[in-house]
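INFO  loader      accepted 1 record
INFO  loader      residues=349
INFO  predictor   begin
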Amino acid sequence: MWAINATFVQFIEQPHPIFVDTTKKVHPDSLAIDSLLADSIIIENNRWYTISKDPLDAVIDYSGVDSIVYDIDSGKTYIYINGEITYQSFYLKADYIEFDWDTRQLIAKSISDSTGVPMEAPFFQDGDEAFNGDTLLYNFDSQKGKIYDFRRQEGEGFVTVDEAKKLGDNSYFGSDLHYTTCELDHPHFYIGAEKARVVPEKIAVTGPANLVIADVPTPLFLPFGIFPIKRGQTSGILIPTYGNHFTRGYFLSNGGYYFAISDTLDLALTGDIYSRGSWRLNANTNYAIRYKYNGSVNIEYAINKDGLEFTPTYSENKGFFVRWSHRQDSKAKPYSSFSASVNAGTSDF
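INFO  predictor   done
INFO  writer      dumping C-alpha cells
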C-alpha cells in the first residue's frame, strides 16, 4: 500500500477508493502544501493526480489511536478514537472526526463504546476559548460552526446550550441557554432563556429569562438578562441558594448584587427571605492596599420569625450586627504590627 498527501489531491484516474491504517497507534501527520503551482500534475505509481488550487494557509497536524481512513472518492478523512487535530490556534480532540477537504467542513461527534456507554465528549479550543460538546460542525475557511449540547465556564459561572452557532469572532448565538454558578453537570439552579448571545470574557445577553430551582420554574422572571462574564473582578448578579429551614420555612439565601468598585474596594449587597416571614439584609465590603493594609466590614439587619404564630413555641426578634476586621501588612512597618477585630450588635441577633 502506498501513501500520498490525500488532502490536497484529486485523482484523475480512479484509484483504490479507501486507504485504511489499522495500526494500534497512528503517528501524527502533517497535511500542507506550502508552494505548489495550481495546475501541477504529478505521476506516481502510474497514477495521475492534480494539486488543489486552494490549499489551506498552514499545516494541519492530525493523529488517531485506532485508525485513520482516507476516502478518495468522497474527498473525506475519518479519524477514530482519541483523534487530535491542530491547525494554527485551532485544536480538537474527539473519538470520531470526519473532514471534507472539498468544503473544508469538519464534523466531530461523541460515540459510545461496545457496551453502549458514552465515551468522552469532543473537546474544542480556538485560541483562549475552549469547551466540550456532543457534536461540533466547523468550517476552516469561515471559522464558523455549530455546537450541540455544550457546556463551558464563563467567568464565575457556567453556560450550557442545546444548540449554538459560533461566529468568526468566537461569540455565539444559542437556543435553550442555562446560566448557573453551580458546578454540577445537572445544576441545582439556573437562569434559563430560550435565546441568547454570548461574547466570551465580556457579556451574555438573553431574551426573557426565568430562575429555575430544582428543575421547577419560579415566579422570578426577567424580560431580558444581561450577565457580565468578564474574567477577574466584575460587577454582577449573585444568584441565591435555596433550601428549607426547620422553623422558618423555605428560603432563598445570599442573593443580591456584587459591585466591583475598584481594584482596592468592593461591595456585596445580599439578602435572605423565608416563606414564614423572616428576612435578612447584609452589606459586606472588602478593602486592600498592597503592602499597607487590608480588611473587611460587614453589616447585617434581620427579622427572625421561628415557628408558627398560633403555637406556644413561636418567637420573633429583630436586630443588627456589625463586624470589622483590619490588618496591617507586614511589609508596611517591618518592626511593628497592628490588627483590629470589632464585633458589635444586639444581644438577640
